[in-house]
Amino acid sequence: MKNFVNSLTTYMALSPDMVARQRVNQWLRSRPCLTCTEWYIYHWTPPAVPRPLPEPLINFVYQQLHAYSGLEIGCIAPSDHLVDDLAFPAVCWFDWSITLCEDFYDTFGLDISEYFDETQFFTCADLVNFLNQQLEQREAEPG
Description:
The chain has 143 residues and is mainly alpha-helical. 57% of the residues lie in helices and 0% in strands.
């Protein structure tokens, strides 16, 4: 019985906080919810950024961040803070960053697990720019 209670307590501690998720989604609903294509055009192409980011990367981020967080990604702005605004540590499973690294490898064939540290990303744009830099570095490598 003690193991069962400990397992249940651990599961609850590692699982998403549905109240926090609901609160953040409520806050996001005050904004228009963009489709993946609209989110890409509005936030990740000029004039919003100096040069367009790869559309497959933005599609990946849009789909995967929703899967990890349950948040309406189409309502998120690049300047939104992952912790302060979006409560990512609370709304996601505890291992979302590990899963993101695995999914990034499955999608792009690039292992970023050695360099990925979610505590270093303050905004959504920080996370997206890091992922883009990883792709750019691979393209710049000879061979």
